[in-house]
Amino acid sequence: MAEAATLERLLELAKQLSALDKIRLIERLAPQIEHELKSCSPAERRSLRGLWRGVDISDEDIAQARRETWSEFPREDL
């Protein structure tokens, strides 16, 4: 029964190749990898437009968040 190809096993075999054969291996694999990358479509991105629709943030809310954030700055333990 043939042994399953694993990345580790293939790397072991590739290390045994001469430098010229390693280059030939890369030349043969590169077009196939390029084709596979072109054929897979990127994940569809969700639009962020309208993300904050319906949220009402006032100037006072922002000021309060700033006060809370900076209230302990600079800290003595740093």
State the shape: elongated
Portion in strands: under 5%
Round the mean pLDDT to the nearest integer and report it.
Answer: 88
Tell me how many strands there are.
Answer: 0
Compressed to H and E, one letter per element, the order equals HHH
What is the distance, rounded to the nearest whole angstrom, between the alpha carbons of the first and last residues?
63 Å
Radius of gyration over all CA atoms, rounded: 28 Å
The low-pLDDT segments are: none
Could you list some keywords that capture this structure?
single chain; 78 residues; mainly alpha; elongated
Topology summary:
Blueprint: H1 7-15, H2 19-39, H3 59-70
Q: TL;DR of this structure?
A:
The chain has 78 residues and is mostly helical. It is built from three helices and no strands. The relative contact order is 0.05.
Provide a descriptive summary of the structure in words.
With 78 residues, the chain is mostly helical. Helices cover 54% and strands 0% of the residues. The protein contains three helices and no strands. It has helices at residues 7-15, 19-39, 59-70.
